[in-house]
Every structure is written in C-alpha cells, then in structure tokens.
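Follow-up to my post from last week.
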Amino acid sequence: MRAPLSWLADFAPFDVDPADASSVGALAATLSDLGMVVDGIETVGGGLEGVVVARVTELEAIEGADRIRRVLVDAGEAELVQVVCGAWNFAPGDLVPLARVGAVLPGDFAITERRMRGVASAGMLCSGRELRLSDDGAGIMVLRGADPEPGTPLVEALGLEPDVVFDLDIETNRPDALSMAGVARDAAARLRLPFRIPEPAIGELERTGEGARVTVEAPDLCPRLAAQLLTGVSVRQSPRWLARRLALAGMRPINSVVDASNYVMLDLGQPTHPYDLDRLGGGGLLVRRARPGEVLVTLDGVARRLGLAADGSPVDDCLICDATGKAVGIAGVMGGESTEISVDTRRVLLEAANFEPMAIARTSRRLGLRSEASVRFERGADPEGIPRAVARFCQLVAAAGDGTGPAVGELADVRAPAPPRRPVRVRVERVNAVLGTDLDEEAVGAYLAPIGFEVRPGGPGALEVGIPSFRPDASREIDVIEEVARHHGYSRIARTRPASPRVGALTSYQADRRRVLEVLAGTGATEAWTPTLLGPDDHRRAGLGGPSLEVDNPLAREESVLRRCLLPGLLGALHRNASHRHGRVRLCEVGHVFAWPPEGQVLPDEREHLGVALAGPGDDARAAVVVWRALADALRLERVDLVAEPLGPAGALLAAGAPSAGAPSWADAPPSAGGPWPAGGPPGGSSSDPSGATPSGPSGAPSSADAPPSAGGPWPGLHPTRSARLVVAATGTELGGLGEVDPEVLAAFDLAGRVERVGWIEVDLGRLLGAPRRSEQVEAPTRFPSSDIDLAFSVDQSTPAASVEVTLARAAGEMLEELALFDVYRGPELGEARRSLAWHLRLSAPDHTLTDEEVASLRRRCVEAVQAAHPARLRGG
Amino acid sequence: MPPDPSDLSPQDLEEVEAEAAAAVAAAGTAEELRAVEGAVLGRHSGLAALNQGLGGLPPDRRRAAGQEIQATRARLREAIARRRGELEGIERRARLMAERLDLTEVLPVPGRGHLHLVTKTRWSLEDTFVGMGFEVVEGPEVETDWYNFEALNMPPAHPARTGQDSFYLRLGAPESILLRTHTSPVQVRLMESRQLPIYAVVPGRCYRRETPDARHIPIFHQIEGLVVDHGITFGDLAGTIEAFANAYFGPAIHSRLRPGSFPFTEPSAELDITCTICAGAGCRTCSSSGWVELGGCGMVDPNVFANVGIDAEEWTGFAFGFGIDRCAQMRHGLADTRLLLENDIRLLSQV
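User reply:
Got it. Predicted complex:
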C-alpha cells in the first residue's frame, strides 16, 4: 500500500520534514520495524523550483516540422518567453506550467536552452507526469479553475506541499494496516504520539429520513450490510487535494462519487460501493447466494460465471442484487456494469458491508479476480467501522459538490447476531516465557493500549485484554504476545542460544549418500539436477511401461507427469549439453521417483534413486561396470550379482516406445526397509519408527519377499544384450539395473549421432545403502612370501565369467590373497561357442611359506572345480 | 722398462705419478677409469715396479723411499675416486637429459566430476547446523493436504495459500495429494513421531506452481529448522539465527528479524542478513539498505502443536526456513536462478 505522509498526518502529528531524508528515513525505519515494510520511498512535489505558471499568448507552426510548434508564453516578465512544444492540447489564453532554464525536474531532468528546427527554446512546458503530479503524460498540464498570475511558482499556484509516499508491504495478518488510519495508529503508538480518527462532520447535511430497502438472505456470508441513500448528488471532478491524494496512493481519480468511495477505503480500510439508485431495480439491495451458473458482467466488462466450481459442483458466491433480485455485483470483489455511477447520477445508494473472509477469498481465487476491496475483505474488515465510513463518504461527496447537497437518508443497517468477542487473558509470565523478555504488567499494558487493545487487570500476574474489532487476526494469548513483541521491538529482545542436548550428526544414510556422490565425482561424473516433472510420453520413450502419476494442473504438458526413473531426465541433460557440443560427459543424479500408491496407501510409492549416465569418450556398458565396482567397493558391499537376462526370440524383442507388458515398474516391489524420512512414508502411518531419519532397519537385510517378481526381459530402456540387474547375492534383493542405454531409446531422445554409447546405472538408493556390507574389521597381511599362479580356461560363451570366478574363489579357499581376471580372448582356435578367460591368483598362508606341493595341490583343486562346475576346460593344461 | 730401483730417485717417482695422473684425467668413462686404475695401481704398474726395487736400496734410504711410494699411491687413489665421482655425475646428467619431460605437454584425460552448486551449498548448510547440534531430517516430496497445509494452520481458503499455488496430483484419492510447497510438512511428521526435544533441519525439494523467471522456478530447494524444547524463547530464535549467519556467511554477516506473518508461527518474523555483496554498506543488490531478505521464522504456533499433540504450555519451539538455491546463487554470484536447472556442464564444472 502506498501511504502519503501528509495523509498519515491526518491521524497523528508525525514530526517529519519531507525534504529531510534523515527524518523520512527514521519514520520509514519505524514502519519497517513494526512489520509494515517500506519497499520504497518516493518524494513528490519536490524538484519543482524553477517551474512557474505561464499564460500561452501565441502558437505558431514551425516550417518543415509537423509535430512541434513555437509557443510564446507570458511568464510574468517584461518579455514573452519562446519555447518549442510537441503537445497540442492547449490554446492561447491557457495557463500552463513552464520549467525555466536551470530547473531540475523530478528524476534529475535538467532543463537547458535548446534549439529545435532552428528555433530556440528557453524552457519546457510540462505534463503532469513530467512533474510527477499525475499519471497524465498525454499532453501539457493545463491549469483550470484557478487563476494565478503568470510567473507564480507552480507549487504556490497549486497549493502543493512537498510530500513523501511510503510504499508499504503489509502482511496478510494485518488488515487494519491496509488503511492510512491503521498505519498511523501503529506508528504513533511506537513513537508515543497521540492518535485520533476525526469524526466526519455531516451535521450540516440535509436529512430526508428516507431509508434504503435492504434484505440479506445470506447472513452467513454477509454478517452486516449498511446502505445509505444520498439524493441531490452532483457528480463532478473531485477537489484537487482529494484527487492528488488518491493519485499518490496509486488510484486513478474518476469522479467525485467513485473517488469518495475509494478515498474512504484507503482512509479507514472499509470498502464501500456506490450504486446509481435510478438504475437499481426496486430501489434497494438484496444479498443472496449466486444460483449455479448465474452470469454477471463486472465493471471491467468481463462476463463472470458464478455459483459453479470448475468441476461443475455448486459453490458459495455471495451476490449483491437489486431489490428485484437481479445481480448487480459480486459481493466484496467487484461491482457490476449496469449500476455504475455516471455523470448523470443524481441519487446514490452507498453499500457498506462486512463479508465472511473465507467466502470472499474462495470467490476471488476461483475467479482469478483480486480487487482492493477483496484483499481487505478476505483478510477481515472492521465490522464496527461501517457507520463512520458511511459518514465519511457523505462528507466527501458533499465537499466535492457545489454546496447545495446532497441530502442524506436514514442508514439502513442489517446485522446478523455475532458472538461477542471475548477478552483474552494474557499471563505476563507467559509473555516473557515465549519472548525471552523480562517485562512487567505495566510494560505489557503500555504496549497494547495505544494500538486499541483494552487492557484491564486480569488477576495475579495477568491482564485481561479486549481485542479491538479491527484486529480480526488476534484472538488468542499468543496473538497478543506477538503485538507485545512487535511494539517492544524484535531487535530489543536479547539474543540467546539454546543448547542442543544432542550431538549433531548426519545419519549413516545421509553420510553414505554424500559418499556415493563423491565417489561418482571421482569417476568423472558431474551431478545434475533434472526436473521431477516429465512429459506424458517420456517414460514410454525411455522404455518404461505402466501408469505414471499425473499432475492435475500442470503449467505445461511437458511437465505434467511425475518421474518414475531418472533415465528421461538425465538423457535430457545429455541432450542439452550435446547441443552445446559437450555431449561426451558423465552425469549422475540422486533424486526422488514416484509410483502409484501401494494398495491401501494414500501417498505415492516415493523413493530416492541414483542414476549415472556415462557418455564420455569410449564409454559403454563396461564403463558402467567399472563405475559400479568403484561404488560397491567404496560402500564395502557384500557380493552383488550382475544378472543378465537371456535374449528372447526376435519376435519378443520390442522396440523402444513399445515396452513389454511385463516390464518391471519400481512400484512392483515393496519399499526398501524404511524410507529416508520419519514415520516411514505414508501419512498417519503411525509413529512406529521414532528413529526417523535412519533409513533402514538395523539389519538392512530385507526379507526374500522383497525381491521383485522375476518379470524377465531386459531392464527397461537398456540394451537387451548389454545390461544386467544388480541383485544382492545374500538376499536376492534387486538394487537396480546396469549396462548401456538401448540405442533405440537414445534415438527416441534425439541423441542418435550426438553421443555414441551411453553406459547407465540406476539403483534404488535406499536399497543400495541398506544392502549388506563387509565388516570393517581388517586382517593383518601375512609376513610370508606369496605364490602366483595363472589359469586360462576356454569357457562356453553363455557362462558368465563371474560364476567361474566364484568357483575359483571357493576352491582356492583361505589361501587366496588376490583373484583377478586379466585376459579375455576370442579366436578361431576356440570356435564360436567359447572364449578364453585367464585369471591371476595370488596365494599365501598367514603362518608359513606355501610349499611347491601346496601350490600345486591348490592349482589342481581350482582347475578341477572349474571344469566340474562349468562348461570350461583348462587351456594349455 | 722399469727404472732400476737402485737408481730410484725422486725424479722417477714424480714421472710415474705425473704419467698416472694424466691417464686418470684422460679417462672419459667409468670403464676407461677402471682400466686406468689397474694400469696405474696394479701389479704391473710403474709404482709396483718401484716398490719391488725398494729391496735394492740401501737400508737407510729404503724406509723413506717406501713411504714416498705409499704417499704417491694414496694420492693417485684419491685422484681416481675424484674422477669416478666426476664421471658418475656426467653420466647421470646424460641419462637424465635423455629422460627429459615437459610436464606442461601432458595430454588431458577425463578429469573428476563436479557436485551440483545446490548440493555443495546444501551440504555446507547441513554441516553448519550439524555443528550447532542439529540433526538432518528428510521427508516425501508428495504430501497430503493435511501435512502440507492444514496441520500447519492453513485451512482451505486461508489467504496464505494464495501465495503457495500447488501442483495437485490426479489420484482420485479421498484426500487431495500435492507436491509439497515447502519442507514444513516434514516438521509435522517429525513432531508426530519423535521424542522431544527436537533440534533438526529439514532440507529438500519443493514445488510451487509459478511461471519460471529469473527469481522463481517451479522446482526449488528449501532448508527449514525446527527446535522444540522446554523454555525455548524468541530470543533463542534470534540468537540461533545470528549464530548461523556468522558461521555460514562469515563473522561480518549479521541477522535481523522483522515482524512478519506465517500461519504456522506466532510471533512470526522475516529474516534478513547483512548484504553479502556490500557487507552492509549499501549497494544495488540490497537497494542501498545493507540488508537482504533470506527467509522467514517464528515461534511455533500453538495450533500447530495442538495438531501434533504437543502440549504448548509445557513445550515451546521455533522454526525457520529459507532457500538453498538462493544461498547457492549468493555464494556463486548467479543472477538467474533458471541456470540451476539447466545442468550445463560449462557452468557445473566451474566449481
């Protein structure tokens, strides 16, 4: 809200000189400190030194110029002044503002002698906007009504006083501060200045005794409705002081009646609405609920459909109607076109009402229609302020007239019985306990009384505090405590620090998650943050079938579905970088994914996933395995198997975009052991887990039921013959998938040709971090020399190297110190069906040097075990 | 022809020594030096011959001559050792020169990756609060209307809801389900499930239905704090915020609380910190005020306590919250918040 200093001064004697920045700043600081934050300070009416009133004497075209003219003006000196002017809205004899050479207009606009089209211009004729006196920049400001001598300083001629406008940001809980009186009350209290709202003097006005006919059919929506008849009204321009105040406050002056209504709202905070009584059917008002689907054309010319929600269900919109029941306005939001005040209006009916805040808020939100009135009603207007606002309106309409009218009728006032507002008992001890202050009863009372709270003794150590009607936000002890804090000053409350009884620490889940990201960064992956909301087609393009969760009211179609995996997002990030020719990157992300709520739950199955996209030079599925191993080693994971799915017949191989019906969804599996959040997910899901942030149960080992159904088929979106599922060997829990992105998926994301192969890892982070780990206990290395043996086998292509490795490890037993695959060879001598796999084994014993016999026997055991368990033969053996 | 020992004279010895010394100096490699060593000190050397001739000398001269020869032999040994050292130096230098490597001509290999700006900022914020005895708690991003709004004292049509336009899910559930508009619902879950006292911060991703511009994106990150304990006061809130501001932003950065309004706190406050650009002197960023707005805070409203079954007479608490993205922007001087969502490697790899 824009609050001119001069207006605030109507209510309290603020000692502020608009020209003195420090005194203006001090008041601004006071307002801010009270929570009415000053977003801007504008000085007006200043910077007009050097602007005088001048009478136009001559207008003449300039040769060759069709937009500017030569103007001679009388500026009260012996000689006429010649200026060049581009405005056409004035004639000889008019009085206009002339900025003399040397004047500096608001906005640091210095006037200098200029020459245009060869004609000298010794100054500038000004528009209202150039002088910051009005919004009107269309033409020169022509002074009407008054007749000052040419040469009179403009400030003097207009009776302008320099002023300051504070642009205030008023919090939603302070409807009282949406008026000049309310702002002044708060500031005066802090500055210990007397505050008074002047009583409108309308005793002089003629009384007709005529009352308006008003009926309220919806007292729950409209607890109070007052209507005042004014007859003999003449609608004209508002007096200059009033128009100027409205303009300074940011409202456009329209005519004396509408302006008076707006002025009262800014002055006292009570919105009112004037109707042309002669255009009001039945000569009265009726307040009712809108009928479903009823249409009304509002003042802004828009036809509004009322009484119906978007989904077609009926809603409570409160309508103001004429006495015949025809709607003439949306209560508290905006009036209708048909009863608008015009220059011909002679009889006015003023409506001043109080509406149910929630109802106004709902209507205003649903229609997307906010007005100065709706903002005040939805926050809560003062029901007791209505008679004063009506009187103030009458006074202002009278002041704008020619002194003959108007005549006023009896105030019609319909009120629903309201429960009395009870005083609040405020314990001084409680005030201090909440604030950390050391105030006594007297001090607490001294903060409250000046802002309209009635303070009486309330028993030992307590006060009984009556809440003023203009503070609907306050109804509890704590609300009153906030007022004490505000007026005491937040900055005066001593700062202390509570001592947490806990040792602060990350949970192991949180610490491990950081470790995962750091390890990945070490492998060259940069962390991305991709959108949670995807396009409706993105999952299908990424090879993932099944239903996704949709947003009911998305901003855009491409952001309308909750992601179920990280693949589409990271492929999008790859695409963006590729379009800058930076496609050969490694990216990773940790983020939430969402699947349909499990049976019996309200919230979606929400999990945290880790995704890694490897598109660096030479990256492919192998890179994904290397990165996975680094991760598994950093986390000390117990064995996790890479389980590849056998490729089905050609007919069963579906292209990207047509996922198989059996494609697994993350939702197929029950949640990991505990979520990463308190109370384990679903609302009302009991408070069984007070450990909260600890992500997994102590064992971290999910039951075997935790394994996803063996849906078969390759991992969604991954290359069918270059991918595997990650399965915890001990428990069978599936962590996720790993391999290479299916080339068809790359093509579907427009990455074909932009990147080559893309290695991919995606795991359920909760499960990954809950998977069994190797013990942190270490063994001292043996002090005895070790022996090396190399074993090369020709192994059937369908036998995974890993399974041979498991056999070797078992056979070598405790003597095995190291086991590493060091060569893979395919060649004609092996045939199509086999390849050679060579392992290096380092053997040792803790207590002696292995003898040649021992080594030979171990070697024999290894060879026999492998040949017995697999279609494998020792090479060269 | 070895000199006749009977004629052994100082001149003979000098000649032998000079000859031998010249040979040592002339040796150009360690191998040549070894050969020279044999020639000048070995059994067939001039010195050896002279030594053998000692027996033919009269006894009175024999002793002195013997000593002369031994001294000469020692000098030659020393010369050889010196020469050996020289030659080793020369050879080592040649070897090193052959291995010379310009360390600035090394070809680049794919380097380390980078954490997202927001993650780095989130971690340092978390660490600061952990250092103050807080724990870090997280919760779901999809919430019920109850947790996101109602339990936080924001009934339907509450004016504060207009500032938090939400994405609702099409779930057909009896309760409306939405993407959380703040991390506050986790505070409710925490108070429901946790033994008091609570000292916790809640970081996480939030969603508001706002058209993106330089200052707003519909997906953003927040961190909130919650303390519930016996005897917690507004002064504790102000002191905790100040300690955090000093610790996280630096000792020159202070905090200021101004009256504000939030449905879930009473009294409520807007939270400003010293402008980090101008350190409070006044600049364009802070509109010459010296302060920038960071977030909001306040004492937990008794209605919120009632909703989670905490006795507001026995316990008091405070809560605060602000944007992680905004902190990241301040830290890295990033004007347009939309850049955070673009995952541009050229931006991410700078820090």
